[in-house]
Every structure is written in structure tokens, then in C-alpha cells.
């Protein structure tokens, strides 16, 4: 029984990680296409290391792109 529970936990964890990568990829595509909300969100993710490695330069890059598209 413990092995079954462990297997289920591993599968759920793997699915969760895969879903997060897909979400980040979708967010990045939207940001690259000029979606200001996606650009700001991606900047936040890079700043905080949420779903991606913390990267101040990437955060700044996305924060700077948003005002160019009209985000205040």
C-alpha cells in the first residue's frame, strides 16, 4: 500500500512540474507576442524565481518591454 501511495505522489509531482513548464512556455509566447500582462507576469516570475531560475536581468528585460507596449 505504501508503494502505491508513493507511486501516486511521484506521478502527481511529475505532472505538476510538467504543467508548470507548459504554463511558463505559454506565458513566454504571449509575452513575446506583446501581451503586456504576460510581460509583467514573466518579469515577476524571473524576479521571484517562480517556475524559473531567479534572473534579475530577465526580470528587467520583461519589465522594460511592458511599457513599450502600453503598460504603465
Architecture overview:
- The protein has a domain at 24-72.
- It has three helices and no strands.
- It has helices spanning 2-32, 36-48, 56-69.
- It is an all-alpha fold and 72 residues long.
- Residues 15-19 have low confidence and may be disordered.
- Helix content is 81%, strand content 0%.
- It is elongated and about 55 Å long.
- The longest helix has 31 residues, at 2-32.
Could you give the count of β-strands? 0
Distance between the termini: 55 Å
| C-alpha Rg (nearest Å) | 16 Å
Roughly what percent helix? over 70%
**What is the H/E order?**
HHH
Q: Strand fraction band?
A: under 5%
Shape: elongated
Which characteristics define this entry?
72 residues; mainly alpha; elongated; 3 helices
In short:
This protein is mainly α and about 70 residues long. It has helices spanning about 1-30, 35-50, 55-70.
Task: Describe the secondary-structure layout.
Layout: H1 2-32, H2 36-48, H3 56-69
Amino acid at each position: 500500500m505504501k508503494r502505491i501511495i508513493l507511486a501516486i505522489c511521484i506521478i502527481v509531482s511529475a505532472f505538476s512540474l510538467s504543467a508548470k513548464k507548459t504554463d511558463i512556455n505559454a506565458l513566454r509566447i504571449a509575452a513575446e507576442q506583446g501581451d503586456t500582462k504576460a510581460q509583467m507576469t514573466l518579469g515577476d516570475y524571473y524576479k521571484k524565481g517562480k517556475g524559473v531560475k531567479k534572473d534579475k536581468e530577465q526580470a528587467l528585460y520583461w519589465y522594460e518591454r511592458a511599457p513599450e507596449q502600453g503598460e504603465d
